[in-house]
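Could you join me in thinking about how sequence relates to backbone shape in a protein? To get us started, please write out a protein record for me. Would you write everything just below, so we can both look at the same thing?
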Amino acid sequence: MTAEISKLAIVPFVSVENMMRLVLKVGVEAFLTGLAQAIEEDFLRWESFDKTPRVASHSADGVIELMPTSDGTLYGFKYVNGHPKNMREGRQTVTAFGVLADVGNGYPMLLSEMTILTALRTAATSAVAARYLARKNARTMAIIGNGAQSEFQALAFKALLGIDKVRLYDLDPAATQKCMGNLRGTGIELISCTSAQEAVEGADIITTVTADKQYATILTDNMVGPGVHINAVGGDCPGKTELHKDILMRSDIFVEYPPQTRIEGEIQQLPQDHPVVELWEVMAGKVEGRKNEQQITLFDSVGFATEDFSALRFVREKLQTTGLYEDLDLLADPDEPRDLYGMLRRFEQGMKE
């Protein structure tokens, strides 16, 4: 005999399978566009959110992080790891799941996979930032690092900015071939390059999205010409960067949340008082983003909790019309709120009957 499950015990759960079904039902580019809109909406109410740098547990192998935030009505958090060595073991470098909850009663309202969703929200955030920071006539992008994030970046920039040519480079040529194969038929002109230097030639936007947990120099100063927008995605924890310091000194730098980015981003290479601009201020019209065609802009992207909050909020809204979720018996809900032990005893009795 099984106990009857209370409606209050049930939390909608989006599995990996249902997340894939949801993305494909909406359409990848349409999903990225909708996700970008949700992210931008929440950036525009930035001051209403609780904000804190993510809580990180670092090891020699990688990092495990919790990313919480709340707008006073909803609370959200994401669990995410970053373990570059995982690829050699047949595992993902990054995995994640997230929760959205009701601030009023503390009950979870959604539990979702976020490995796929994080890739989508990272790409959508990159493209949102570029709409404010890249030159308006940008059509060519270089992507250096052609791993799990690369296709999402290309499609987000196509959908939101009209990018139609992507120059690809990775230390592993097989990764570039994988990316080109996945993007074939999307309407993007794809060019395989043999070096990072070759990839950035003629590019209006340069995206760096590598995984190694180390100080690296993916871009050197001589590779970045005037007017370029740099979308630096890969530097996202202490001791992990992609850009030569001289590039930072030539660029106007835009960040999500300075207390977190100064710990994890490219600007960990700079003094703590080096000037940066918060992205939400540009979106809100408080600060000018791109000022002229010659300016080098750098989005030092490390990912912030509000973006995951936006992604979970967006997914939850889509579930109402698609039904692509499962009911998860997650919360104990005794008949009498103070009688949790009695619930256990009654279940035991039911098992015997």
In short: The two ends are 7 Å apart (CA to CA). The mean pLDDT is 95.
